[in-house]
Amino acid sequence: ILSYDAKDITIASGYGANIAGPITIAGKNIYINANLGVTTANSNINITGYGNITLAASTKITTNGGAATLWADKYSWYSGGAIVLENNANISTSGGNITLGGGYDPLTEYARASTADAAYPKYLQGIYLSSGSSLNSSNGTITLNGKSDQNVYAVTTGVYLDGGTITAGTGKISISGLQTSSSGTLPNAQGVIINGGIYSSSTSSDAISIIGNASGANGGGTSLGINIQDGATIQANGTGGGIYIYGSAGTATGYESGVDFGGNVSVLAASGPIVIESNNPTRTAPTNYDMRASGN
Hints:
The protein is mainly beta.
């Protein structure tokens, strides 16, 4: 399904597809309100939006070993393009890679929070995974690249895992969240928020990599590189499989931290390295940390 004049596309409830594949959808804002699946081995699903891409609650995207790619804010032509998975939405690939990103190359560039939909808080995040949503690659690589540059009075985050789960089997997981807003009106700028579960059984030393950069977010109430919230789990189960976490903060009027661990957080590796780097070079806020951990 292609909209060459970049119109919005909606896959309405009851009008999904489960076909041999592949499936390609391209337009401006893409709304997936029905299940999409391909049955042929290694056949792909590619969804490209010059604006936002939204998976409605409880919708499923499935492949049989093929890749699933959600490419928002393509070429950065419009006022941003976020990726939102609503409650219990699911992407499952049975071994294929899962990529959520934007710009000119979703593997390296960012889905970007949308000014056009700023009234809807989830679009203020580059990538937002709602409660119960999941990405499951069953041994494929999972890549998330999200960015927010919004100057609004709200939480604005590059990648926000808000009750969702990311599971890669023996595949690696890479999450990169960028916050670049500089405004005195911005109260809560964060690179990455983790409030859910992230699991990989890869044997690589970087089985799970999480990078949150809010060093360009200056002047608001909060600048926080990575916020790992109460109850979150980051787990590398493979032999030798490791975890790398890097967070960097900018300047704020209230609170700064490169990496913040809140409450009962689990960061676990079966036998591989766990490396956590936290950077807060200015430390100008009344409450500021290079790294903060609370709870158990």
